[in-house]
Structures are given as C-alpha cells and as structure tokens.
Design a protein that fits this description.
Chain A has 337 residues and is α/β, with parallel strands linked by helices. In chain A, 45% of the residues lie in helices and 14% in strands. The termini of chain A are far apart. At the A-B interface, α4, α5, β2, α6 and α11 of A face α4, α5, β2, α6 and α11 of B. Chain A binds a DNA duplex (30 and 30 nucleotides) through α2 and α4.
DNA sequence: TTCAATGCTGACACCGGTGTCATAATGTCG
DNA sequence: CGACATTATGACACCGGTGTCAGCATTGAA
C-alpha cells in the first residue's frame, strides 16, 4: 500500500499537481468537469493532504498554542475542551502549554515555544490574558493571539470574557436578600484580573443595598484550596462571626466549608457559604455550594474560532464579546435565622 | 529581520547545507574545526531548525498523541503533565485527543486523527490501554504506541502500570485491621481494566484474612460521582449496614460520604469510607478520604519517554514496568467501635 | 473578422530540511 | 613512495505541498 500524495492523485487523474492543489483549496478557475474528476480520485484513493508539506510551503503549522497557569484542573479541562472543539472545526491542532506566570523568564520560555513549535496563534487564558509584558511581546513578534476571560477591553485584539463583576454582584445580592449583612469575602490570586472584578461586584452589591463595606471581613486568598483554609481560619474566628462567606472560587469555598464543619458549625444554618466557577467540587460536597457558573468552554471556543479566522484572513475589526454568568443556588446558602 | 534558515547559516559559515545538517544532528564525519565554526554561527544568528521542514523530509511530525476518555479531570491533567514533560525532554509535542471508547466508530475517529495529524506515536490511557480492537488496529497500521495503566502484560509493547490489585489489597486489609468485617465494595467502569484489578485485590484481602466474600456487599459503579450516589444509596440502606465502604475511586467515595452525611451518619465513627486514586477531592472534603496514591505522572512520563526512544530507534525488547501504589491514611477510616 | 479580456491548465521554482553518492583530502601500510 | 582505506565535504535530488507565471482556448466587443 503506497502512500497517496498529491502526485499520485495528479497522475491518476491525468492532471497537474497544481490543478489538484486548486481543487483541494477550492480555488476558482477550475472547470467543473476537472473538479469533479479530481474529487472522484480523492475518494477512490482515499487521499488526505499532508499538513506538514502544506505547512512548509505556507510557513504555517496549523497549530494553536494554549497557555495556562491555573490550579483548577476542572477549569483547565474546560478550557481545553472548548479550544479543541474550535480547532477541530478548522483542521487545526491544539498544543497545550502549562507554564508559570511568575516562573523564571516567562518571555524566554514563550519565545522558545514559538521558535520550536511554530505556532500559528496563541490563546491566553487567565492569568496570562491580562499580563501586559506577554501581550506586548506577542504583538512585537506579530503572533496572533486571543484572550479568554480578560478584564481589560481597551485593545484591538480578540477577547472573549464573561461578566465576573456582575456575577459577583448577583451572588452577593443573593446573600443580602437572604438577610445577610456581615458577608466575609475571600479574594483570589492577585495576578488574575478576575480577582479584582469579583471584588468589585461584591462591593457594588453591598453599596447598592446600603451595607457598609468592612475591611475586616476581607481576606487575601489565591484561588487554591490551601489558601482558602488559611482565610477560613481567620474569618471563622472573627467576633462576631460573619453570617456568610463569599469566596472568589469554589475551592476556597470548599475549604471554608471543611473548616466550618470541623468546627461543628452547621452550614447553612450557622453560616452560609458561596463560591464561584461552578467547579465539580461544588456539587460533590455536602451541602452543595451556591456558586456562579461561567460558560468557559463557550468562551474558549469563540476565542479560538475567531483566532483561527483571523489567521486565515487578518482583519482589523476586533472581536470582543462578554458572555453571561449564571447564579446556581444550592444548599450552602440560606436565610439568616 | 530575515528568517534564519539552514541556508543562511550555511552561506554565513561558508559550508554546505549538508554540513550544517550534519552538525545539527551530531552526525560523525565532520572535522572539529568545521563543527566549531558552525556551532558558533548557530549562536550568532540564533538559529533554530524548522521542525516542519524536518518533518517533511523525514516523514515525521514530532508529535505524540494522547488518547483519553476519563471522567476525572485531575487524572487527565496528571496524565498530561507527565506526558508533556517527557515530550519536552525530547523536543516532541503533545496532541491531546479526548474521545469516547464506546463512541460511534472509534477506529474511524482514530484513523482520521492519524491521517490528518501524522502522529509519530500514541499513548493510550485507560480505558484505551486495554481495548483490543484499538491495539490491533494500531499494530496493523504500524503506529508505535505505549500503554499506561494497562492490566494485560502478555504483549510485546511498551506498558507502564501501577499495581492496582496490590493497592486494593492493602487498603482493604487496612480496613480489616481496623476491625471491619462487613466491607462494601463499589466497582468501577467495566471498560477499565483497573476495575477488575481493584476488585481482585479486595477479594484477595478478604480471603487472606478469612472473611467470607459477600456478593450482596458489591455494587456496580462506573467511576463517576453520580454512579457513586446510586451505589451509596443501596449500600447505606442495607440491613445490617456494613461498617465500611471501599469505593473504586475517590469520586464515588466522596459520593458515599455525601450521602452518609445527609443521612446523619458520622464518618468514620458510624461508617468508614475508603477511596482510590488520591484525587484532589480526597483532601478537599471533610473528613479527608483514606485512599491509594498512584504515580500517574511518573507512569505517563516513563511510557512516553520509552515511546519516543522506540520511535527514534525501534527495538524489539518490550518495556514493561510496574510502579508502586501507596496507601494514604486520612480521617475517613477508623477502628470499629 | 480581429483583438483584447478572461478562463483554464501546467511547468517550474520554492519552502527548509535530510539522504545518496561522488569526490577531494588525509592517513596507513607494505 | 605508491596503493589503498578512511575521513571530510558538497552537489543534487527529494519530501509533498503552494505560488508565479506563461501559454493556450474561449468568449465578447469593436
């Protein structure tokens, strides 16, 4: 069984390579008869063009890189799922590249990645989406990129986000409507722009409901479960104890829940707990966490789709979309008694 | 800034392309003087060979595919981490390919993957590692592959596993030593060979401690959290209720814990619960789950490393290794009262 | 009827590497 | 010192596609 190449197809069909190439790429200036003939040979010989040869000729790799540095495995897989789907739609492949934002010489790392892998474009996921040094670098290298869940919009690039501020607002208001006034807040990792956004939403909800913001109720976390434990320890020891805790993601919320349970507190009777992200753990624990669900797959899918179409035909119009986040109510929040 | 290719290096160094190529690939028959000279030019021009051109010439892609179909995000990311590390060590890239074992026409799906991506090799993770149809297909196509966590060893291929049977034996014996005699068991997904292995270990521990195996205490799960809930419902309603439950993975164990808690049972005072895999959730919930930790990254790393070395120089000697699994004791198991 | 415009097709170079083979330079030995 | 083996190097084809351009056929307008 010999390899089927454009040459075998051409000689079998009795036309030139170039004509076969024209049919492959749906170029004009091929008579219908010829096109039909070639297409038939494609089927007969079960021909698939070699992306590597194509890549060499066009100086493209048909590969999109996906950068991430995230403690949440579920977030990572959701990002991958969305990105993969978009890639497959356009015969691209996805190269995953976990790396540390604060690792030694990130830019060098990325430069090497670009050198050795010849990526056609890059998807930036948090916290890279809003890392100016990296964005500037990619711009200078003229590497197309798309940003997922970025907070900064004043830019001419592709950016798909969901409304973190609004989500945080809604879940905080949900707690307020249940009668809570003393609502502790655990911040996320300072490198993530979502951290600031969620904090803003929390404060806006307090303000718009006439509740005074209290600095003492705010703890610094970093999205990791472990940081949630530390923050929870401080918060649960406060006198008087807040009646609710809103953690910036579900892992930290789960940590609060664990500690509260260890301290014999009943959730939600003694204290309400809310998270963010709707990670699997939110429904794997008891009580299930009230949280905010974001369309992560959808965001990434749109970002990559736009990125690919931008690569094939560069356009000036930026693509910037904000998708909706949704409140999911579970058992961890209840009316104050 | 022009592109730096092998041609520019050659003319700049005053030698032929071929000589540059020889230096690149550490081939013999280059005088030390010439080699030095060329290496210096590499540095000066900051040259990196184009893997696409190389791939075309050698009919290789320098890409390894990674197949998986697994509900556990943490398992997937661990697999990816190990595989990526091995790939980077050898200037390979990793292409992730989630797909359904029982999906429509798996073989076709994979065939298309091979056609369009020109993979140099494939890593099979459970449940693909022990799926005969796929293995046979890859063999017939002469695609190098490596199997991770496969149970079947009578094969001449690369296979790296950990000892599921022994792990299950140890954790069951751990329960027995705590005084438990009525130990329920929740099976995993029948497509995974680990399911059978873990069950075997459970039975061996019972047998070697003179406890009679009781069919009534065994439930069919499929590794998903949801299936754990179903199994838990049945188990916790048994009269008399077993004093311990050993679930084939942590998600199902977490489900048992959730249901037990909802039923006002104290864990581990009223009932002990053990899991398998040491997934993040095992330490994110309260009480933390006693479980078995497997070196997933290490397994995948070894498998991919071997796969790549097999690709560069095919050898007949199969590489088959079994790594150790380790018992991790947390709060969810305790002596019977 | 003639000439320009347009449509269709193929020859050929090119992308950036590697493989083959011929040849020049050097070393070895009787 | 000449015959021969060995080492070092380069010319050139090749991998499987795409881009450029020339040439021929056909069509439309003058």
């Amino acid at each position: 069984m010999k390899k089927v190449t454009i040459n075998s197809v051409a000689s079998y069909a009795g036309v030139s390579k170039k004509t076969v190439s024209r049919v492959l790429n749906n170029e004009p200036n091929v008579s219908d008869a010829t096109r039909e003939k070639v297409l038939k040979v494609f089927k007969e010989l079960d021909y698939t063009p070699n992306p590597i040869a194509r890549g060499l000729a066009q100086n493209r790799s048909f590969i999109i890189g996906c950068l991430y540095d995230n403690p949440s495995k579920s977030y990572i897989t959701r990002v991958q799922t969305g990105a993969l789907a978009a890639c497959h739609d356009h015969n691209y492949n996805l190269l995953i590249h976990p790396c540390e934002l604060r690792g030694q010489d990130l830019i060098n790392n990325i430069e090497q990645l670009l050198q050795t892998s010849r990526l056609d474009g890059i998807v930036l996921t948090p916290p890279f989406s809003d890392f100016p040094e990296l964005v500037t670098f990619l711009k200078s290298k003229k590497i197309p990129y798309a940003r997922v869940a970025s907070a900064v919009l004043e830019d001419d690039s592709i950016s798909v986000r969901s409304n973190d501020e609004q989500g945080a607002f809604e879940i905080t208001e949900h707690l307020i409507k249940l009668g809570h006034k003393e609502i502790a807040f655990i911040k996320g990792h300072p490198d993530h722009s979502a951290t600031e956004q969620r904090f803003k939403g929390y404060r806006r909800a307090l303000a718009s409901n006439g509740i005074e913001f209290n600095e003492r109720l705010v703890e610094e976390g970093n999205f990791s479960y472990h940081s949630g434990v530390d923050s929870a320890r401080t918060i649960l020891d406060l006198e008087p104890r807040p009646t609710a805790v809103f953690a910036s993601n579900d892992y930290m919320a789960a940590a609060v829940l664990k500690l509260a349970t260890q301290m014999q507190l009943k959730v939600p009777d003694d204290i309400s707990i809310a998270g963010f992200d709707n990670a699997p753990i939110a429904r794997h624990i008891w009580p299930g966490l009230t949280t905010i669900a974001q369309p992560v797959e959808e965001m990434t899918h749109q970002a990559v789709t736009q990125l690919i179409s931008h690569i094939s035909e560069p356009q000036e119009t930026p693509y910037q979309v904000t998708l909706e986040a949704k409140l999911i109510t579970r058992e961890s929040t209840a009316a104050i008694k």
